[in-house]
Write a structure and sequence with these properties.
The protein is of the alpha/beta class and 401 residues long. The protein has 15 helices and 14 strands. Among the domains are: 71 residues, Helicase, Ruva Protein, domain 3; 71 residues, Ubiquitin-like (UB roll) (Roll), CATH 3.10.20.30. Strand 3 and strand 4 form a beta hairpin. Helix 1 runs parallel beside helix 10, helix 5 crosses helix 6 and helix 6 packs across helix 7.
Length: 401
């Protein structure tokens, strides 16, 4: 799974990425600070199953804090986008190529309107962030259309002459974007297109195909950044009303980064995604008056107003709601420890609708090939390979090996 962080230059994309990953990323107040994409590991938060067994898990990857399991996910912060990116303006071509493998997009916008369409700093409230949502839709749709249009006439003519199934041919051509045969078939059926004569499809119909495929393969959540500024707070509800099909999350990447770094330094106790934090004994001694005021500003103007900084909520919503994933814990009815004595060391992300057999293959190919049954560790009930898993299930796989 790969989460792509996208948006205009200078809206806080790299700050959001660093806050989510604590990876080194260049953060600067000028357009195109990010040239090459930054890659790192973020985490989605799951209510850990260990406490139900009166145990303390020892994660192999990720970590567990205050009963919450943080499961790693790959992230990429790509070069900033400006209008005309699909034509190569700004860092557009590189931006779009870097996005090909992303499963879901986090569009970071400057909700306070302090950044114009070129990524230049302007007076707060002088630029309408509504325009950013619209222009990114256009750029992504035009990118998909450009790929679809490449050699279209020859491609469509060949498909018709050789009597190939258009949805299979298109799925092969667009596989690099995550397009599948069933996905194409549904889009063509919904648009009521003549599958026998693709060479007769109009440019408007090709645009509709591109738009629908983009929506299906690159679902998007919008992080309304800079809500710590007064101008940002007032725009969030207006954005939600204007674009009811999108999920908007009020966000302050600067605040999250400050809290995460203070937590890492042992100055505060902070659970990512929480609505509060506490000073540690070290923090009470080491933090100066200016730093204490900055933390209190975050508490009062971000956490108490919005319930969190929004960064963790964006990642959790992207993975569990937009992509429809669920967290599954491997375990054993007899014991929850692995051969090295680690309790519940793993937590895997699987798509909704996954079965016990899917989980077996996720763990190891041999477990899938030699699958006998699975056991729900909570209920100790034996289930078959077609058993549908639920979010936070703890499952034991019994195989012939």
């Amino acid at each position: 799974m790969l989460i792509g962080v996208v948006g205009k230059p200078n809206v806080g994309k790299s700050t959001f990425f660093k806050a989510a990953t604590l990876a080194d990323a260049e953060i600067a107040n000028y357009p195109f600070a990010t040239i090459k994409p930054n890659t790192g590991v973020g985490f989605v938060k799951v209510d850990c199953a260990d406490k139900e067994f009166n145990k303390q898990c020892i994660p192999r990857m990720g970590y567990c804090m205050q009963g919450m399991r943080f499961v790693p996910v790959q992230m990429i912060d790509v070069a900033g986008l400006v209008p005309g990116a699909h034509e190569g303006k700004g860092m557009g071509n590189q931006f779009l190529d870097d996005l090909r493998q992303a499963d879901v997009l986090v569009h970071v916008i400057d909700a306070a309107g302090t950044t114009n369409e070129k990524g230049e700093t302007v007076e707060a409230g002088s630029y309408d962030p509504v325009a950013d949502v619209r222009f990114l839709e256009v750029e992504l749709d035009m990118w998909y259309l450009g790929i679809l249009n490449k050699g279209w006439e020859k491609f469509a003519r060949t498909v018709a002459q050789e009597k190939k199934q258009i949805h299979i041919a298109l799925a092969t051509q667009l596989s690099g974007l995550g397009v599948s045969e069933p996905m194409i078939e549904k889009v063509l059926d919904d648009l009521k297109l003549d599958k026998e004569r693709p060479q007769g499809w109009s440019s408007e119909e090709l645009m509709k195909i591109a738009r629908e495929l983009r929506r299906k393969t690159k679902p998007m959540i919008i992080a309304c950044n800079k809500v710590d500024l007064a101008a940002g707070r007032g725009n969030v509800e207006r954005l939600r009303t204007t674009f009811p099909d999108y999920i908007f999350v009020a966000c302050s990447a600067d605040s999250e980064l400050a809290l995460r770094e203070a937590g890492k330094a042992g100055l505060i106790s902070y659970l990512p995604g929480a609505n509060t934090f506490e000073l540690t004994e070290v923090g009470k001694v080491k933090l100066n008056e200016r730093q204490l005021k900055a933390l209190e500003f975050i508490r009062t103007n971000v956490l108490q107003v919005f319930g969190s900084t929004g960064v963790q909520q964006v990642l959790d919503t992207a993975v569990f709601e937009l992509l429809g994933y669920m967290a599954i814990f491997p375990g054993g009815v007899a014991k929850l420890e692995d051969k090295d004595g680690r309790c519940m060391p793993d937590c895997f992300l699987l798509q909704a609708g996954s079965t016990a057999l899917d989980f077996a293959y996720k763990l190891h190919t041999d477990l899938g090939k030699n699958f006998i049954c699975a056991k729900d560790v909570r209920t100790k009930r034996t289930v078959g390979k077609e058993h549908l898993l639920k979010h936070r299930d703890v499952i034991e796989i019994v195989s012939g090996r």
